[in-house]
């Protein structure tokens, strides 16, 4: 089991049982941790022979703070801090660590001032443009490599079949299993071609739930047959694509496992279905074990990890009590089971630490790539926003901004180039702006939702949302939505209005939105999810 690359992994045949168990643990580490916490992590890495780390921004942004109770502080130097910590922790390790991160839409998911790419749902709007998705995977892979990261815990291949899903939504490619599979395949190939490890998540499928597993245990009340036909479909179809790992979601499946155990602790799900029935041979990794769906079930330190180990888990992500858990697994004296998981993890290390021949050749810049995606994903519902102004000159139009984007090139261009009167619709001036709107033949709404997540009506102010509904009921509006298309479920349908989905608030997408409004480019995208209201008309 020796590695023939330029990085010496040591001789795995000489590892003790304790060292092998330590290799199964992926500690959560935080870019903005204190020196005291960093020293504690270094000690555990050295003493317990930990195999992997997963980087998060800060403890305030981690899973147990998903409700946002703690303030997440901005740190413009997070990227340099990340690289420093990677080197520091690698130095503490007896065996080189696998470094992982959630970079579904780039390092920007965790780190300030790093390249950001569109959400999976935005990529889901692309038609026959898998080459662009491939480039996203490739660029994210290169960004990871430059930071010292080997393993991107992506892509999400959950089918977004529940429009009220509070945690998957925009992270999914859409609600069609074939489209999810094809787009994930392109993303995976991009990462694979630059030498980054991948991870499909969240098996057996986290798309059809209204519950956030960070906070409670979702229930997927479907039969094994239904799961295999739908939720598990992308996982099974993507297995030939050199899948390195699959993450198990914290999901209760009463028709599949009547023990009431979450999937992360279910031998039926992990061993019988994923391992034996589907034939997956790679590393099976848990979703973060500090998430309340499972962490609240085990008051005794280490019992949660032990239960997951017994179910067939290979690697334990975000274990809150790694020292106690390692000891409890060792005491099982199940050397054959430990050896099996250890060999899978070791194989990943051998693969990852081989020298990569990848080069940054013929690669689009981040801005160029985002522009191409924006141009090809913009989607129209109910007609052409530009044509609606043919008989209503710009001087009799009004642009209303809803939200507080960092930049708004779309509205700036409407005002400065076309001369369209522009106002911000906000609670202090709702009545004034509404009165101003009554005398206009056409209203162009630049809609920037406060949140990409649907909880609490996307964090809209209720009075503002009511005012927006009143405007749309006039039937003379063009809405440019720079955010999650599911926001449209909150708005009244009126075919006299034009709804244009831009999906992201990036400057590149704002530029493309303006070009669309002025008739310079067509809308080529496809809505990747069904909407609640009048979906038969879309």
What does this structure look like?
The structure is a single chain. The longest helix has 18 residues, at 335-352. The protein is elongated and about 80 Å long. The N and C termini lie far apart (56 Å). It has 538 residues and is α/β, with parallel strands linked by helices. It has helices at 17-22, 35-48, 78-92, 120-123, 130-146, 177-192, 224-229, 233-238, 267-277, 292-295, 303-311, 322-330, 335-352, 366-377, 409-416, 430-437, 455-458, 462-472, 507-517, and strands at 25-30, 52-56, 98-101, 151-152, 200-203, 245-248, 283-286, 316-317, 379-381, 397-402, 421-424, 442-447, 477-481, 498-501. The protein has 19 helices and 14 strands. The protein is 35% helix and 11% strand.
